[in-house]
Amino acid sequence: MALTIWLGLLRSLVIYHNPVRTVPLRRFYRELLRPGDLVFDVGAHVGTRARAMRAAGARVVALEPQAPFSRFLRLTLPRDIRLVEAAAGGVESVAQMAVSSLHPTVSSLKTGFADEAGASPGFGHVRWDRVQQVQVTTLDRLIAEEGLPRYIKIDVEGFELEVLSGLSQPVEVVSTEYLPGLPDLTLSVIDRLGELGHYRFNPVRGESGQFLWDTWRDAPATRDWLQGLPATAPSGDLYARLDT
What we know:
Rossmann fold
């Protein structure tokens, strides 16, 4: 089992810690962020985005509960990035994470995610083979400690709604992963953001590092787009910008 866990870490480093992904991300975050912006990276994984946001001049708080990623980040992240070895959720607690040792990017705290995702396109080869107990904090707690961020990035494999349930005020920019095979997860996120403020949306497909639309769209138009995607379409990140 230990060998499989370390193979999973190595696999993630090969996939995510290379110039093909990091160069577009750094360019994208230089355009999205301003020097001095406070950002929360919820689900930091191997730290690719945390490092890219720091390179754009942001002050980064990175959350990652999953071993061995949290240990890797503790050893390798720049010292001016605050690492919180915890997940984010609706309440401060301890929770059980379903872990895929060989494909750790799809490990999740969401109850039933393994069953839902396992039946969706692109997940048939994944096995969730163990459980890890993790600490859970809330976005409100982090805000009390660090201040109000300008941007929150959330990539937590189906647990996005629970993360946002621990946020009680609008944030200027929020991004969450969208999975075309599981659209209801993102539809619930759109609804939750609508409870916090008036947001407009724009997706980034895959790791392209560029917005898909020329103009930001309202919630109904975004819902229509998401529901019209084929289940086999590439995943990506849906960005929400507070309309002031």
